[in-house]
Amino acid sequence: AAARLAAEQEVENLSGLSPNPEKDIFVVRENRTTCLMAEFAAKFIVPYDVRASNSVDLITEQADIPLSRGAEMKGKCGTNESELEISWLKQAYTFKLLFLKEGHNTSHGQEAFWRLSRIQFTYDTAERTYFKDADNPGKHTASSHRLSALVTPAGKSYECQAQQTISLISSDQQKSVQLLLSEVRVQPFDITADFVFSEEHKCPVDEREQLEETLPLILGLILGLVIVITLCVYHIHHKLTANQVRIPRDRSQYKHMG
């Protein structure tokens, strides 16, 4: 059964199709149908300790770890729970995302939505690409706590171009690891067309930025319309006033009329 499941499931890293070298694209397919898609640019900011020059004191340095192209991945799709796991540099780094589909009661009845419920990042400070002379090197795991992110109505994909920061707590002396996500498009459930996202649900930041971009245009159009209406009213009023017969105030001029 496990062999059959493995044969029916396909995972693909399509990052090479993205024009942005920092953006990765991942697809999970089961039974020849796409069941999970994710596109995003990701970077981890990880604090770690190094020995000072006196070999006694500890100094905290910072490693900036991007999600590398060509990373290995595996995924799992379910009715109410889906998972995406990405690893790179010989599994020195592993990035795992867990999605849940739930329902809640509203004034319109029961409504379903999905969310990113858990993030786990495992890293090895003995890896020398991003960690330089780490003190007491070894593997650590940074995890989210009571996470509810990317909340999206069921049947839609989540889209957010703006950068988002999610804090993770590390097993390395409870240090805070920062995950920076940007250019995100994710759908872990209810994909109706192969390799195609469903209708997008934009994040509040993108909606606000879009409003800020279009608001000056809208105000300019309204102002222009008000000016045009004012000029039209003035022109009509001036024309009507010019066509009226003027009655002289001096009664001696009446004899010249007719």
UniProtKB/TrEMBL annotation:
User: Where does the record place it?
Assistant: Cell projection, Dendrite; Cell projection, Growth cone membrane; Cytoplasmic vesicle, Secretory vesicle, Synaptic vesicle membrane; Early endosome membrane
**Which Pfam families does the entry link to?**
Lamp2-like_luminal
Cellular compartments per GO CC: dendrite; early endosome membrane; endoplasmic reticulum-Golgi intermediate compartment membrane; growth cone membrane; late endosome membrane; lysosomal membrane; recycling endosome; synaptic vesicle membrane
Keywords of the record: Cell membrane, Cell projection, Cytoplasmic vesicle, Endosome, Glycoprotein, Membrane, Signal, Synapse, Transmembrane, Transmembrane helix
- Keyword S-adenosyl-L-methionine annotated: no
Its membrane topology is listed as: Single-pass type I membrane protein
Residues covered by the Lysosome-associated membrane glycoprotein 2-like luminal domain? 21-191
Q: Which domain of life is it from?
A: Eukaryota
Note the PROSITE patterns from the entry.
Answer: LAMP_1
GO biological processes: establishment of protein localization to organelle
Q: What is its main location?
A: other
Task: List all membrane-crossing ranges.
Answer: 215-236
Q: What does this protein do?
A: Plays a role in short-term synaptic plasticity in a subset of GABAergic neurons in the brain.
Instruction: Quote the PANTHER family the UniProt record gives.
Output: LYSOSOME-ASSOCIATED MEMBRANE GLYCOPROTEIN, LYSOSOME-ASSOCIATED MEMBRANE GLYCOPROTEIN 5
Family of this protein: Belongs to the LAMP family.
Query: What is the protein's name according to its record?
Result: Lysosome-associated membrane glycoprotein 5
To which species is this protein native? Oceanodroma tethys (Wedge-rumped storm-petrel)
